[in-house]
Design brief:
Number of domains of chain A: 2
Protein name (chains A, B): TetR/AcrR family transcriptional regulator
Helix content of chain A: 55-70%
Radius of gyration of chain A: 20 Å
Pfam families (chains A, B): TetR_N (PF00440)
Order of helices and strands of chain A: HHHHHHHHH
GO molecular function (chains A, B): DNA-binding transcription factor activity; transcription cis-regulatory region binding
Distance between the termini of chain A: 71 Å
Keywords (chains A, B): DNA-binding
Oligomer: homodimer
DNA sequence: ACCCCAAACGGACTTCACCCCGGATAGTAT
DNA sequence: ATACTATCCGGGGTGAAGTCCGTTTGGGGT
């Protein structure tokens, strides 16, 4: 044997069976959610239906909220792809203001779409990632940085502003709309109003006027 | 007996013993929290320490989150008093921009102070009131209305803007900071930065420049 | 092919929020 | 004072999240 070896090279990926189980659990979770909603997805039920032990479910996702977070992760990744590499104005190519506006509109649509899961991913014992390292904060900060370089913005503390704008964008959905609720006209109408309001907020911050 | 009587006049207040128990429970809850933090306030422990049945605790507050909400209510009321009737710039008398800025700063301080309880008052099965009918949204909307009357603002949809500003103000605290966490310099420093950022955000929205 | 052990698995166990409902009681009408 | 009833109280019961730890297994090393 080697006299000396580093314990791990790369942070060591999941074992094959673990990865398989993760996928399987996510698939079953999606099924259960579309059949009977977020509320009825219990850890016991999920484990049983997936033919796995409950311990396994927890090992894979850490908590009930973790399952929803993992589910969102998928969708998020797709969304992020559009933002980073898709066509303008959402993707690169348009001017900063247009991109910020487009991002807000797209993000609102996304949040409306995944609202139930988004809510379920909240965890009483865990800080929420939305405002912190969340996609919105990061992307908005990036755009604000660009805006400042272009002289559209003179704010010193871009980090704080990014966080506040991200909260302004996502907050109303995460904090306001009811858990599962009738997805009738109500939320959708409000979403349009919020999107318009976001647009004018962005324009004021970037002093387009 | 009277031939006919309305079932209730005023929404019928709490019975004396019930009110007494509520106060007592809140007092004990405050003690327990300051002794060992929010996490260890369980319904069983509270009931036992208060020498009351668990059922009573639930009857009085509805849920665990309800206790924290009731606790916050006190503090909120005091805060609101300052905002409505206190000295300017927080209270009435100063110009709109100054009042908005002052409100934000005061609110941030308040949130920082009551952060642990604020988080604990969140309830997985209940929509959050912060953005909805919350004090911040209401007060900000009022000030925005005044600003519009004074020609400082031309936004049509004041409701949406109020919600977004409230989210920008409170979101970072409710969503971002960790549950109980070390109340060291970290959060406080961030709070100052956010307060400054709030000020410049308000000034831009009210186009003071 | 075999060894080895870190990682994964399973499911009983613990803890806790919340429900239920029979029994007690405060406040009111007589 | 007495009776009446809406409200309250108590604490055992239930369902679900999360923990623990003994057992099993994937897969790199030899």
């Amino acid at each position: 044997m080697n006299a000396f070896r580093l314990p791990v090279g790369p942070p060591s990926a999941e074992r094959a069976d673990a990865a398989r189980n993760r996928e399987h659990l996510l698939k079953v979770a999606r099924e259960m959610i579309s059949e009977s909603g977020v509320r009825r997805l219990t850890m016991d039920a999920l484990a049983e239906r997936a033919q796995l032990g409950k311990g396994t479910v927890f090992r894979r996702f850490g908590s009930r909220a973790g399952i929803f977070a993992a589910l969102l992760d998928d969708a998020d990744r797709t969304f992020q792809q559009q933002v980073l590499y898709g066509p303008p104005p959402l993707g690169p190519g348009a001017d900063v203001t247009a991109r910020l506006v487009a991002y807000g509109r797209a993000r609102i649509e996304f949040l409306l779409e995944h609202h139930a899961i988004e809510r379920a991913a909240l965890d009483r014992n865990q800080q929420v990632t939305i405002a912190a390292g969340g996609m919105s904060t990061t992307h908005i900060r990036m755009l604000l940085g660009q805006a400042r370089r272009e002289g559209l913005l003179h704010t010193a503390d871009i980090d704080s502003l990014a966080m506040q704008l991200a909260a302004a964008l996502e907050g109303p959905f995460v904090m306001y709309l009811a858990p599962e609720e009738n997805a009738t006209a109500g939320p959708a109408r409000r979403a349009v109003a919020l999107a318009d309001s976001w647009e004018s907020l962005v324009e004021q911050v970037l002093k387009v006027q």
